[in-house]
Amino acid sequence: MEKEELFKSEQEKWISKISLENNFQLGAIRLVAGIDIAYWTEGKKDYGVCCIVVIDYITKQIIEEVEYRGQIDVPYIPGYLAFRELPMVIEAVKKLQCEPDLYMFDGNGYLHYRHMGIATHASFYLKKPTIGVAKSYLKIKNTDFQMPKNVMGDFTYIKVDGAVYGAVLRTRKDVKPIFISCGNWIDLETSIKITLHFVEKNSRLPITTRYADLATHESRRKYTQ
């Protein structure tokens, strides 16, 4: 419980500094990084690998890929996942030769109990705009979401107590939606626009986080053989 209180205090320190407004011009975005993490256990120790795939916004070509493998010392505690993942994210970012203009996370940002999902929390250390792209819904205060129309690009807002936390986005027809939330220094409409920009025909996910997700699975197989 003491660790949870420390984590909660750390999150609350940043909340007032979150900005759901763009601090950039969309035309200035050139390099966008997708980030994901995979875990496994060896003996009694937990390990993880963080993979980052940097993609050119215009050409959609991969510019750079890096990974960082490390032992996990922080247990999984609901609502405090960033404390488990952030150390690996920071170490992986250090290995990049290029400098991304924006980071997209396989996870939540503002759509979080205290608006401090991994995408938001990490932004204060990366000092770049961030977006949360989640495959599953984090239910807050027992609030359900309204399903968007079965049309690519349609979305509905996720509201909790009347406040917008994120959006349910249909990225492809006849495919389950995904859950988009601002990380920091970006608005929700721009977050949705950038996400849709990177969606291709073979997946409901943007290629940024999709490629990162594929990379983590491949790396985990490599390390656990």
UniProtKB/TrEMBL annotation:
A Pfam family hit: Endonuclease_5
Main location: cytoplasm
Keyword NAD in record: no
Location in or out of the cell: Cytoplasm
Reactions the enzyme catalyzes: Endonucleolytic cleavage at apurinic or apyrimidinic sites to products with a 5'-phosphate
GO molecular function: endonuclease activity
EC number, UniProt record: 3.1.21.7
Keyword tags: Cytoplasm, DNA damage, DNA repair, Endonuclease, Hydrolase, Magnesium, Metal-binding, Nuclease
Residues reported to bind Mg(2+): D36, D106
Marked site (Interaction with target DNA) residue numbers: Y76
Necessary cofactors: Mg(2+)
Family statement: Belongs to the endonuclease V family.
Role this protein plays: DNA repair enzyme involved in the repair of deaminated bases. Selectively cleaves double-stranded DNA at the second phosphodiester bond 3' to a deoxyinosine leaving behind the intact lesion on the nicked DNA.
HAMAP family the UniProt entry points to: Endonuclease_5
Protein name per the record: Endonuclease V
